[in-house]
Amino acid sequence: EPGRPPARRSRSAERSVRLRRVHPDDFPALHHFPLAQPDNAWLAEVAEIIDGLPGWLHSIEAAERDRHVVVLDDGGEIVGVGAHEAVVDEFGRIHLAHRYLMVTAIRDDRRRQGLARLLVESIVADLQRRHTSSISWLVHPDNEASLAFSRAVFPDADETSPPEDKPYIAFTLHLGDASQ
Question: Is the pTM of this model over 0.70?
Answer without folding.
Answer: yes
